[in-house]
Amino acid sequence: MAFQVVGGALIVPLYFFCQLRWPAPQAPKRRIPISVSRVLLPSVVLGYVLPGVMAFNSSNRPLIENQLWIGLYQLFPLLIPTARLGLSRILDTVSPPKEYATHNSGSSHLVVLHIFTAFVSAVTRLYVAGGLLGSDDISLWDFFVPNMHASSFEQKVLVFLQFDYAIIMISISLWTWNYSREKSLSANWGLTMVTVILLGPGAVAGLARASCEWKCQGQEQSDGKIGHKVE
């Protein structure tokens, strides 16, 4: 729980700082698309809960120690959608939604937040992977071949990561297929998979969300310019 508290202590103040620095207009629509909401809960269950149970159910280490290791890795990919959902509800309660008045850099704070989250997640992933490689029970080959009869704690952590990779790769493939009209997304499929292996799915999720926010921001600015020209 300590690592989860530290993660929240880093992200939440940064979000509010960016919110004050680059205020975002309120939108009269859902903050999280239905397509994203439908994927969120299955991703939590299949990508984190089940692999965690399968990897750690027979560990002899204390529960709090297992929780610290899991918290290092599993929190960051889920932090942004959860925080965004909660904060959007709070903001909509405090200030009722209204129409966009201008097309400015309203999502700049989200771009910064997603990039920062990707960085923290990548550092965490490299730290965990480096610690696993330093173990006598794990070799580089073990990263690519799942060991379903893991005995040591480090091997169980590695099995957890491998289950996580499988779920994330399937999710990315389905996401790419669902948005197949986006040619740039399809072209980056291989690069995304490599990034998942090297930096972890949390970094990919953060960078993908930052890219989406950046493109939406540019589209809003383009639409605003076109609207002004028409007027």
Report on this model:
The chain has 231 residues and is mostly helical. The chain has helices at 2-21, 34-56, 63-94, 108-133, 153-178, 183-187, 189-199, 201-230. Helix 2 runs antiparallel to helix 5 (153-178) and helix 3 runs antiparallel to helix 4.
Q: Give the % helix.
A: over 70%
The pLDDT mean sits at 59
Rounded radius of gyration (Å): 20 Å
Q: What is the terminal separation in angstroms?
A: 55 Å
Q: What percentage of the residues does DSSP assign to strands (E)?
A: under 5%
Characterize the biggest β-sheet. none
Summarize the structure.
With 231 residues, this protein is mainly α. The chain is built from 8 helices and no strands.
Compile the SSE list and pairings:
Blueprint: H1 2-21, H2 34-56, H3 63-94, H4 108-133, H5 153-178, H6 183-187, H7 189-199, H8 201-230
Helix pairs in contact: 1-3, 1-4, 2-3, 2-5, 3-4, 3-8, 4-8, 5-7, 7-8
